[in-house]
Amino acid sequence: MNKHAFVKFSCFFTLVIAFKTAAAQSDADSIIYKQSVFNLANRFDLAIGEESWLYNGYSFRSYDPGIKGSPFLEDATGWRNGSVTYDGETYQNVPMLYDINADHLIVLLDNHSSPYRLVSDKIASFDLMTRHFIRISDNSGGVKAGFYEQLYGGRSAVLNKWEKTINTSRGGSGMERIFVPINDNKEYYIKKGDKYYSIGDASLSAVLGFFKDKKKELKQYIRDNKIKFNSLHDLALVNLVTYYDQIAK
Asked: Is residue 122 within 8 Å of residue 129, measured between CB atoms?
């Protein structure tokens, strides 16, 4: 048994013994004792502390402060709580940042001062800022390995790739570097079979071309429901792909 498993087993064993003991107490004593056990259960994750399997990765080195802008999702400047499924386990309320320049997920250790980069291939998915991301581990059609926002998880799943790069240009005070989005964060992919295919910026014509077997039905659905791709683009895209899955069974 490795160290991480031993710590978890020890904590679990302590809880089991505590609950059995509580059951044997008198009613008065049992109330107090059960409350103590309840507090112990609530502190289970704290009991294993940094032995948690979540903290299995690399220390994170911050970028040169001279680079303007933010490398993180939605230009975040501070930690946001999210959830992550890592190495087969799901962790809630984890302080994290998604570095879309390097395509890394950064979490904060229990001491709240040590940023930690998780091992990407151990991450199945994570949720941050109301967005759900999945990990594509192997190249699949036109999709390279990495993290993708999953807009729709049905048969014809829809993904969006968030990316940034560092641009260098000459400014008034010399050479300047700044984080800028790639493709304005509008590179979309749709799943067909077991592969994903790029549909660029997911314009209406591109989506209808991809689903040409039901093009007539989709155009009628758009007219009937007055769907507009100019505003609320992601919602319109998901709506249309969901309808395709319903009629293309």
From this structure: no
